[in-house]
Amino acid sequence: VQFQRRQTPPTKKHHRAYKLYLRQDFLHRCAYCLIHEAHYGGLRNFHVDHFRPKGLPKFRHLALVYTNLYYACALCNTNKGNTWPTDELLNLGFRFLDPCEEDPFEGHLEINKQDGSLLVQTPAGEYTVYHLRLNRNQLKKHRCRLFEAQRMCEAARGLLASADLPAAQRRQIETVIEELEKDYRNPLPPYESGDLRR
Ligand SMILES: [Zn+2]
């Protein structure tokens, strides 16, 4: 996934005020682990992350710049903290993958469908997975669950194509496929913007 900014919100006094804009631009997903809000505590469990950390003096001027703000789940945001590669590491290619500039899954990372872990192919992939802990058990299990839902959809589709089923049964199977796809592809967030006020 490569995220695209579709909005240019007016300047705000606090980075949190950009949260609902970010939520839309990042499609309700964590910029880093890609988990969907609906699978991880909703809006309230997501943070406004500073890609270039505001805690580092050299990036402080970017604290309220929209393009430096990313929507991130609580764990990725906390893991990332003020981490940023030194010049030496940058020269060796170690850096955070930037999901607004590149698709991490094109050349840097690959998913192992057997255990849900991410395999790294470049120093940038390694740096990102290590510092954000993208191979934590929570995420590995989650990825496996999504693959399982995908497999079940495919199996159900195969059944529809091969078997001569009565119309009522076909409709039932089609509904199951729809529900599963909603879950693994684009689930609806269970929490809405009103939650932000709490
Ligand atoms: Zn995350």
* Small molecules in complex: zinc ion
Please state how the strands of the largest beta sheet are arranged side by side: 1-2
Mean pLDDT metric: 90
Report the principal-axis shape. Answer: globular
Structural class: mainly alpha
The radius of gyration over CA amounts to 19 Å
| Helical coverage, percent range | 25-40%
> Which parts are unreliable, with pLDDT below 50 for 5 consecutive residues or more?
188-198
What layout of secondary structure does this protein have?
Elements: H1 19-25, E1 46-50, E2 69-73, H2 74-80, H3 87-91, E3 109-111, E4 118-120, H4 123-132, H5 137-162, H6 167-184
Antiparallel strand pairs: 1-2, 3-4
The structure holds zinc ion.
Zinc ion is lined by residues 30, 32-33, 35, 72-73, 75-76.
Defining key terms:
single chain, 198 residues, binds zinc ion, two-stranded antiparallel ribbon, mainly alpha, globular
Written description of the protein model:
The protein is mostly helical and 198 residues long. 37% of the residues lie in helices and 8% in strands. It is built from 6 helices and 4 strands, in the order H-E-E-H-H-E-E-H-H-H. The chain starts with 18 loop residues before the first helix and ends in a 14-residue tail after the last helix. The C terminus is likely disordered. Bound molecules: zinc ion. The site of zinc ion has 8 residues, from strand 2 and helix 2.
